[in-house]
Structure formats: C-alpha cells, structure tokens
Amino acid sequence: MKSSAMTKSISTLTIFGLGVILLLMLFSVHLIQGQADLDIATVLEAIFTPNDSAAHNIVRYVRLPRVMLGVLAGAALGLSGTVLQTITRNPLASPATLGINAGAYLAVTLAAVFAPVLLAASPILIALLGGLFAAVLVYAIAASVHVTPLRLTLAGVAVSLAFSAFTAALQLIYENETSDLFFWGAGSLLQLDWSGTRYAAPRIVLGAVLLFGLAKALDVLTLGDEVARSLGAKIQLIRVAGTLLAVTLAAIVVSVCGPIGFVGLVAPHLVKLMGCWNHRLLLPGAALWGAILLVGADIAAQQVTTNVSQLPTGSITALVGAPFLIWLACTSTQLGGDTASANTLQAETARRLPYPVLLVGSVLVLVAIAIAGLLFGSAALSLDQVLNGLLGNSSSLAHTVLLNLRLPRLLVAMLAGATLAVSGLLLQGVVRNPLAGPEIVGVTSGAGLGAMLVLVLLPTASPTILSLAASVGAVTAFGLVYGLSWQQGVLPARLALVGIAVSAFCAAGINVLVVFAQLRVAQAIVWLSGSTYARQWDEFGRLIGLPILLLPIAWLFARRLDILALGEDVPRSLGMPLQRVRAGMMAIAVLLSAAAVAAVGTISFVGLIAPHAGRLLVGHRHRQLVPIVAILGAILVSLADVIGRVAIAPKEVPSGLVTAMIGAPYFLWLIFVKRTN
Amino acid sequence: MHRFSRRQFMATALASAVMTSCTQRQKSSQADGRSAAAATRIVALEWVYVEDLLALGLQPVGVTDIQGYNTFVDIEPKLAATVVDVGTRQEPSLEAIAQLEPDLIIGTQLRHDAIYDALSAISPTLLFNPYPDNSLTQLDEMQQTFRAIAQRVERQELGETVLRQMQAAFKTARDRLQLAKSANNGFILGQFNDATPQIRLFTNNAMAVQVLNQIGLKNAWNGQFDRFGFNTVGIEVLPTIEQANFLYIAPDHNTHLKQLQNHPVWQGLQFVQENRFYPIGADTWVFGGPKSVQVLVEKVATALIKR
Fold it and tell me: How far apart are CA B111 and CA B131, in angstroms?
C-alpha cells in the first residue's frame, strides 16, 4: 500500500513537475525564435518591464499571442482527447480520429460560403455543429455492428476523408469566399495579434473547468456500465455532457487555428504511460502535455520555414503522432475483435437480376459514359463532327479533340478506376473490413511520398521515373505497414490501424517536402491532386502494363478470398496457408493501386465504394465480384472525368474531388442502409 | 487523423507555383520551326504574354483566367470582350485551346512544361522562363521575351517602340523624382494577398526591384537570395527596415492589412509614423511586361511625389 502510494506520488511529480519545466522551456524557446533577432534578456524585459520599443512590441503582440494560443489549443485538444477516450472506451479516440476536426472545418467553410454573417457571429457554434454532426455520424457508422476501437477509427478516417473532399471542392469552386480560410486550413498557429487568442482563452478555460467538475464521474465510467450503474451514476447524462464539452473544446481550436491532428490522441496516452489514470490528475496532465506537444511542434514548424511558405503546425504533430499511433496499435491488446467475426458488412443482397444481366448492364452503362465523355467537353462538337473525327479526316479539329484529348483521358480514367476498385476489393477481402481501401492502408500516400521525394531530389526526372518512384513508395509504405503489424501473423485489425498511421505520416511527409521543394511542385500538382487532366496516350501506355497482367490473376485467385472471409479457423482447417494467401493477395492489391496512383495520383473513394456497390449487386462470391467491381470502378472514375471536365468548363475539377463527392454520400448512405436493415 | 489534405497541399504548392519556375529541362524558347508565317491566332496561357501581345497591338484569341487578368493587370489596350477564356493558368483546358485552332500557344516553362507535348500537338508552342538563372536578369529576360514574341508575330518595329516608351517612362519618372527632391532613403516593395497573413518583400533580383532601380530608387530589403525574387516575411522584420519608404500592393479590403494597421508594432514603425507608406494599387502587376512596368514606375513616382 505504502509503495503504491509512493509510485503514485512519483508519477504525479513526473507528470506535473517535469511537465511544467518542459513547458516553460519550450515556451521560452518559442518566444526567442522568430524572424527578428531578439535575445532572451530582451524577451524577459518585454514581458516584465515592457516599454513601447519595437522589440518589446514584437514579443508582446506577435510572439506571445502565438505561443499562448499554442498552450491553450494544445491543452484543449489534450482534454478533448482524454474525455473522448474515456467516454468511447477507446484508446484511439481523439478529435481528429473521430472526424470532429474535419466536420468542424467543413461547417466553417460552408458557413463562409453560404452564411458569412452567421460565421462572423459565432464561429465556434458553427464549428461545434459540424463537429457534433461528424462525431454522431462516425459513432453511428461504427455502431452498425458493435463498436470497437478499430471500427470507430476506420469510420472516423472515412468520414474525415469525405468531409475534407467536400471542403476542398467548396474551396475550389468558391475561391474568393474561402480565400481567408485557405492558409488556416492546414492547421496553423500563426497569429497577427491577440484577437484569436483572446477569443479562445476564456472559452477554453470555461470548458476545462466544467470538465474538471466531471472528473469523478468520468472515473466511474471507466469501471464499466454495470458497475457505474450500480454506483448510481447517470451514465447517459455523463456521456452526453462529456461528449458535448469535448467536441466544444475541439471546435474552439478548429475555429481559431484550423484542424490540428494527433495532439488529442497522444497527450492522454503520455500521461497514462506515466502511470496516471485517475481523471482528477489525468485531465490536467493531458492538458499540460497537450500544450507541450503543440508548442514543441510549433517550434519545429517555424524551423522549417522557407522563403515561400511556412510549414503548417499540423504537419509536425502528424509526423510525431503517427509513429505513436503505430506503437499503440502494436502494443494494444484490445483493439477490438475484428478477428473473430467475418464482418465485411454482410449484405443481404436482394439479388433481383441474374449475374450475366448485371454484367452486361454495367458494361452498357460504362459504354454510355464513354460516349457521353466523347460528346461533351468545353469544345462543343456536333454528332456529325464526332463521327467524322472518329472515322478519319485526321487533320480535323474533331479528330484532335476526340482521339488525342478526350479518348486517352477517358481510357486512363477507366483503367485506373478498375484497377483501384479491384485493389480495394482485394484489400477489404484480406483485412476483412469493409473500410479498408488503398487510401487507408498507406498505399496511396506512400506512392505520393515516393513521387515527391524524387521530385525534390531529382527535379529533372522523367515521368517514367516518377511513376516508378510512386510504385516503390506504395510498396515500401505497405511493406512497412505489413511488417509493423506482424506479430506471429498479421491481425487484420492491426494492419488497418497501422495503415492509417503510416498514411498520416506519409501525408505529413508530403507536406514537408512540398515546403522544401517550393518550385518544382508545379509539375507535381496536377499529378498529386488526383487528376486525369491532360492524360495522353503515353500515360495510358505506361498504366496498362501491370493491370493487364494482374487483373486476370486477381480474378483467377478470387475464390481464396471467399474462404478468407470465413475467419481464421475455417481456412486453416481446409489446409490453406493463411499468411501466404494473405500476403499474395495483398501484393497484387498494392501493385495494382501503385500503378493507378502513378498514373492519376491520389484518387480516393474508388477502392472504398466500388467493392461495396459490387457486393450489393452480386453478393459475396469474389469470382463474380472482380469483374463487376472493376467495371464499377471504371464507371466511377470515367464519370468523374467527364463531370470534372464539363461542370465548370473551361476550368477543371480534379477527378479525385469528383469521385469523393460522388463516393462520400454514397458511402455514408450505404452504411446507414446496412444499419437499418 | 491529420490526413493529407489536398487543399493544404495545393495551398502551399500553388503559393509557390504562382511566382516560381521549375524547369531544368530546357524546352526550346526559340520559335518552333514548324510555321514560318507570322502568328495571328494566339493563345496566351500566362498574363505577361497576354500583355505582351496587347502591347504589340494583337488581341489573343484565347487567354487563361480572364477575370484574374482583369483584376491584377491594368494596362492599355484592354482585352477585347471577344477573347475566349480557356480555363486556369495551371490547368488550361486543352479542348478549349484546340477549338480555337490557334497558330501559336505561349506559356511558361514553370506551369506548362508538363503539358508541352499536348500543347504542341495542337499548335506550335513557345514556353518562356521569366525566372532565369544568373546569366540573365529578370528585367532583361522580360525584354528578350517581348522581342522574341514581337519577332514571332512580325511586329519588331512596334516592339522596339514599346520598349523605347518604357525607357522613356523610366527617365520621366526619374526626372520627376529628382525634381520633387523626395527623400531617397530607399524603399521596400511589399505585396499582400488574401491567402496568408504574411507579406512578400521583393529582393534585388526581382524584376520590379530592378525596374525601380532604373528610376533611381534603392531597395532597402536585403533578404536572402530567392530565385523568384521575393521573401515571405512576418511583421517581425519590418522594424529592421523602418527607415525605408514602404511601397505596397494589396487587394482591396485585404483583412490582413487592416489587422496589421491596428498592430502596435506597425504603429510604432518609422515609416508609419512619418506617413511614408504608399499603396500603389491592387492592379499593379509586378510580374508583367513593358506596359505593366510602365504603370509601375508611374504609380510609384506619383505616390512618392504626392506626399
């Protein structure tokens, strides 16, 4: 008893003593660094005996507001993450993983476009509504079977992806209305004066005080519903109040410095690691360490400032936080049992049409889109011209537009769509989770990082080298995911989680490289933003190699996925080398999506929703699924290509945004339909 | 999860892309030999070449982001209403360009190198590099490119006249400034934009700075060398250059500028207290051609003399 009390006081001392010293140190470093050269004496004078000199004003009105905001926002995120982790009983919960940040940011962007008066009146309320909406949505999705940490996280990532795509599209279309949000969208603490900090401070402090009041109740929650109820706790009330406060705190942060990830995830864990689980200490501890993390990240971000742009603080928190998430995924024993049950959202397919009819039908739809794609575009061609252009007369305008501009783009879109879709199908089959997709297991952003690295190191690289680098990046990222999640075999749940972390890490890496690359980025933009813009015949030639080989192989081996779907034991009892089959299938999937990403960049949602739609149509037999899913993927991306070309012609909407805008609502609807069934 | 946001990437990327050049691959800056006749149906993918053509008395048939051109570039003659918009500068619509059946396309290596093949399949294509390596200054490159375009449209004489007018404008502005005996304590040239609360300060290799040198002004900003000619700085650096005259370009109703003007650091600056900060208009295009340069020196001279 005595010794445990002693450990307790030692851990309290570490958390708060060490924490306060560290925060003070970082606080000072933060104040000293900046574009104006000021020494520590000046900084101290400015704080304690200020006069009206420029140096003092810089410290007091430029640097202090920024570092104070860092402390406040970091504390708010730490608190928010702690409460969310307790309430959802999920070690992976945080404002970012539950989609709250993305929801709040989307709401703020929507308001900036459609109701600027409302936004000016109360940015927090707007952000809060968006954040709450996202949190409820994520929870509802995850609750469709039963809530496990993994489900919640995957649902959160999927919802974040969807919301971010909408935000990006809004900002593209309403460029003028949203230009003020442009800079801030990446999560930045840059402040021009005290206004932002002064706005956030009382609200965050109030939220924190209210949460401290809940500390005891939160402790009771950790005992489990049964015990808590028997102790007379009003569980639902505590949950609702806690969630509201947590989301509000996150919303305040989003409305002042944009979405910043990982602080809310990491801070509570640091404190728990130092041995503190009691909320009366955990809450202030997480606030303190959240502040340390964010101020530290902001110091690092300021170091990487270059001539042209500043690194968003959010990128640094992701670089630090992602490895932490990996570690968490690897050590946590209770990720939630996606191992026991096959839960690739068992669609009770009311199959109304026979398979051949469906197959022919979807091919016809694809052909119809192809024809529409040839007919429409910013150059208006009559049917007559189209026929003439197709049939010959090779010097005509129609010939150029159709055969050299529209057709290659369409074909690249179709092939890339089919490839991504089948890749997603295979991944979902292996991971046995309907939310796995190339964008979630690290493949997509790995490819992006590979390409960016080459662009920075070898600016003169040819497109062939670039796509090679993308493939290497994809394979490496996935290899990393696979290797890190290997513990006597690969647990699908762990794989998905590590995938998310590696994706986030690669994405942050891309951001850092973008800042360093500065100039060469222009040529990468078109490619990285997920676009079929200006794709030519040689891109089609480069793309076709792998898919033409691997798609039939995927079809040939598809039956193994049917067996994999039955869980761990059945395949084993059938004598199937489980790990080898998984590895083989994943290798095919990764190579496929690497090929697609190399050609069209990071087009998301195709690998996620095409397999779903396929299962809805034809059920669960993978032999039948592969062709249908390939065609559906082709339909989705070629449709996105046509819409992107025509919608606001002569401007282009990147296909990746269009697929997300079509895909995201469909995806959410799908999951809700499943749930109500 | 702090996932890679496309917008975030685009934000940083576009910010750098706007003024940057990337190309190491030297795409021919000389006329593509395919068509010898003077070009008449020209598509210009970057505003500086739109301006060059207008100065040479030619309306292009297609231009990118016409709304943006009209916002940022203010020269005579104006763009005709019949000119077709062919999309954004970064991703111009190849179809829209093809439909105009141009006999020449002009773009920059920075933005259009990646689609050079597609463009030159439509018509002969010239890509220039406004951010040359040390061998050439930006101001010289601007004139060299202007001459190359004049030659390509066979209006060399008019081209020389325009350049002489520019030189004359330099002299007039220099004389006006000398006559007014405006205090010459150096200048800094800043540009605000809506996307970030920071300021771009132009460095000595920037064309705009070289132009202002021509009228006898000296740049007080000694920033780190940057190929594209500007540094992005926060308000912190302003006290180090507070003796200079602050010339700035800001969009109308720029919120960051408004915020800045209430800032204690700003209010303490010497050039603010002595009222030596001069807006030179939102539509002064510092990345333009001879006509924009002329507008720049006239606006700067007028601004400095007024006080």
Answer: 12
Separation CA A269–CA A275 (nearest Å): 10
What is the DSSP code (8-state) at residue B278?
Answer: E
Task: For residue B230, list chain A residues with Cβ-Cβ distance below 8 A.
Answer: 307
Q: Three-state DSSP class for B304?
A: helix
Residue B226 CA to residue B131 CA, distance in Å, equals 10
A222-252 tens-digit pLDDT: 887 777 778 776 888 888 899 999 999 999 9
8 Å CB contact of B87 and A602: no
Kindly report whether the peptide bond that precedes residue A665 is cis, defined as omega within 30 degrees of 0.
no
**pTM of the entire structure?**
0.84
CA distance A471 to chain B (A): 18
pLDDT greater than 80 at residue A187: no
Q: Which residues contact A577 (CB under 8 A, 6 or more apart)?
A: none
Query: Among partner residues B15, B90, B263, which is closest to A193 by beta-carbon distance?
Result: B263
* ipTM, interface predicted TM-score of the complex: 0.80
pLDDT tens per residue, range A475-504: 899 888 888 887 776 676 777 788 888 988
Asked if A424 contacts A605 with a C-beta cutoff of 8 angstroms, the reply is no
Q: Which helix H or strand E contains B279, and what residues bound it?
A: strand B277-279
The closest of B61, B49, B134, B58 to B101, measured between CA atoms, is B61
Instruction: Compute the C-alpha angle A400/A404/A405, nearest 5°.
Output: 95
Q: Do A185 and B5 touch (CB under 8 A)?
A: yes
Bridge partners for B104 per DSSP: B42
- Closest residue in chain B to residue A196, using alpha carbons only: B259
B-chain residues within 8 Å CB-CB of A499?
none
Residue with the bigger pLDDT between B79 and A466: it is B79
Structural contact between residues A286 and A212, judged by C-beta atoms closer than 8 angstroms:
no
- A260–B121 C-beta distance less than 8 A: no
Tens of pLDDT, residue by residue over B75-121, are: 989 999 999 999 988 889 999 999 999 999 999 988 888 889 899 99
Q: Provide, as residue numbers in chain B, all residues whose Cβ is less than 8 Å from the Cβ of A517.
A: 16
Among A202-216, A340-354, A583-597, B269-283, whose mean pLDDT is lowest? A340-354
Q: Which two tokens mark A594?
A: 């690497």
Which residues, 6+ apart, have CB-to-CB distance to B236 below 8 Å? Answer: A34, A35, A36, A58, A62, B265
**What value does the mean pLDDT of chain B take?**
85
- Contact flag B101-A61 (C-beta cutoff 8 Å): no
Cβ pair A315:B2 closer than 8 A: yes
User: In chain B, which residues have their Cβ closer than 8 Å to the Cβ of A259?
Assistant: 2
Taking the CA of residue A257 and the nearest CA in chain B, the distance in Å comes to 13
Question: For A262, which residue in chain B has the nearest alpha carbon?
Answer: B1
The angle formed by the CA atoms of residues B260, B262 and B268, to the nearest 5 degrees, is 90
